[in-house]
């Protein structure tokens, strides 16, 4: 349950976003470059057992199933995407944590990849959540140096982050039941998912942002 301050912050940010979109009549939503690590950085687990629903008679013992260990092995996944598809992704070594230095390196690498894919006119708007490495001065300075416009994002609002409500959700569903015990196999599954998504999949994720 969001408190009043957080709710008001969401309203304020959404009004600012709507005003910005109104001033830019061209297809703004296609020019957004979105980054998220799931809770700003998303962790991808090695084991992703499928949930099962089983009916038993009263008094009968319940069947046991393997559950994913929330403290099990996992990797930090960095994923940058625009309306045209995946721009840059990286699966970090085990036990990697994100900080401002790592964030700056990711911003620089994303900028280089994006420059190879699109013209400069696409390098305008960047949207990611308000986790500490995103808000630190060294990160915001790098964004300004590269000429990005960083759209604000309200706190506790994963439901209006396209990487959370659309892209990563698709990855979670894709990995269910798959045993990815090594980083190489896990990375291969992620590559397979990205390569098999239709063009409309990437556009839909960003289009839904305006609806939300």
Automatic annotation (TrEMBL):
InterPro entries: RNaseH_sf, Transposase-MT_Hybrid, Transposase_1. GO terms for molecular function: nucleic acid binding. This is Transposase. The lineage of its organism: Eukaryota, Metazoa, Ecdysozoa, Nematoda, Chromadorea.
């Amino acid at each position: 349950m969001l408190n009043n301050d957080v709710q008001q912050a969401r309203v304020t940010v959404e009004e600012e976003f709507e005003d910005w979109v109104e001033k830019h009549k061209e297809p703004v939503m296609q020019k957004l470059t979105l980054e998220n690590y799931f809770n700003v950085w998303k962790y991808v687990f090695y084991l992703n057992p499928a949930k099962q629903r089983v009916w038993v008679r009263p008094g009968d013992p319940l069947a046991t199933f393997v559950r994913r260990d929330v403290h099990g092995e996992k990797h930090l996944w960095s994923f940058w995407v625009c309306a045209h598809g995946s721009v840059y992704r990286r699966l970090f070594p085990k036990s990697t944590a994100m900080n401002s230095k790592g964030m700056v390196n990711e911003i620089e690498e994303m900028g280089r990849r994006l420059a190879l894919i699109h013209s400069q006119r696409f390098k305008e708007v960047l949207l990611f959540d308000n986790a500490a490495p995103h808000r630190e001065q060294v990160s915001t300075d790098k964004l300004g140096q590269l000429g990005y416009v960083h759209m604000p994002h309200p706190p506790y609002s994963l439901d209006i982050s396209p990487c959370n409500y659309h892209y990563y959700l698709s990855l979670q569903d894709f990995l269910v039941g798959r045993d990815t015990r090594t980083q190489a196999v896990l990375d291969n599954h992620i590559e397979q998912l990205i390569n098999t998504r239709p063009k409309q999949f990437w556009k839909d994720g960003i289009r839904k942002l305006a609806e939300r």
